[in-house]
Design a protein that fits this description.
elongated; single chain; four-stranded mixed sheet; five-stranded parallel sheet; 10 helices; alpha/beta; 19% strand
Length: 253
């Protein structure tokens, strides 16, 4: 996660940075500027997730800077930091994520980061994006994958949960129905293969003889990233994991 901190008063900026870093992990990147024009120009090529902006700054105030940042990236989370409450109406007219009055402290910052207007998501780098926290969903380039049968999606969810381990047809049969439906299971497997092939991700799902599994190296998954300690994934977890199914148990390593 990339954060921009801008305050023209050096001491205030130092305090803001100190309190923000208490909430973050060592993997987050914090960029600090006392010059708002320089802050805008030097972050042009960066995908900023959050900007903490002092409002009362010369040349380019926080409201003006926020407008320029949102024009560049409409989903950046703007959190205004100011000693005055007079700017609140102007701030929220920009659909800001939050508004903190000085003096800043860890509690105020934590509250804003836990209630962002645009929640931080894991950057997509693989063929499929899999969401396990909350309801289980599968995406390709941000578009949900369409399975013909709901049980196909549940079967795929179980394989994701197993994190690449090979699962026998017998085990899948027991998990999905607790009775013999092996002929229907073949239809589900064919449905998964068709759905993934339609988005060029057919190699994510592997079927070998009487077992199948997923190639975890070809999946962006919030649960996998959580277990790796990815701070964005940790922030996304709210205690709910594949909630539409009865069998999942998320082991928080």
């Amino acid at each position: 996660m990339k954060l921009l901190l801008v305050d023209d008063e050096e001491l205030q900026l130092f305090r803001l940075e100190k309190e923000v870093k208490k909430v973050l992990s060592g993997q987050d990147e914090v960029l600090c500027y006392t010059n708002p024009v320089k802050a805008f120009d030097e972050t042009a090529d960066l995908q900023l997730d959050i900007a903490f902006l002092d409002i009362g700054m010369p040349v380019l105030n926080g409201i003006q800077l926020a407008k320029k940042l949102k024009k560049r990236n409409p989903e950046i989370n703007i959190i205004f930091v100011t000693a005055y409450e007079d700017y609140a109406l102007s701030a929220y007219s920009l659909h800001a994520s939050g508004y903190i009055t000085k003096p800043v402290n860890e509690s105020k910052i934590r509250n804003e980061l836990e209630n962002l207007r645009y929640p931080i998501s894991i950057k997509a780098t693989k063929k499929l994006q899999v969401k396990c926290f909350g309801n289980f969903e599968v995406f390709s380039h941000g578009v949900p994958i369409k399975f013909q049968y709901s049980k196909s999606k549940e079967l795929f969810a179980y394989l994701v949960d197993r994190e690449g381990a090979a699962v026998s047809i017998n085990e899948l049969n027991v998990v999905l129905w607790d009775e013999d439906h092996k002929s229907y299971l073949r239809n589900l497997i064919a449905d998964i293969q068709t759905a993934l092939k339609s988005v060029g991700a057919q190699d994510v799902f592997i079927k070998r003889r009487s077992e199948c599994f997923v190639d975890v190296d070809k999946i962006d998954c919030d649960a996998y990233e959580y277990k790796k300690g990815n701070p964005d994934a940790v922030r996304m977890y709210r205690g709910e994991y594949m909630v539409q199914y009865s069998w999942p148990i998320f082991e928080e390593e």
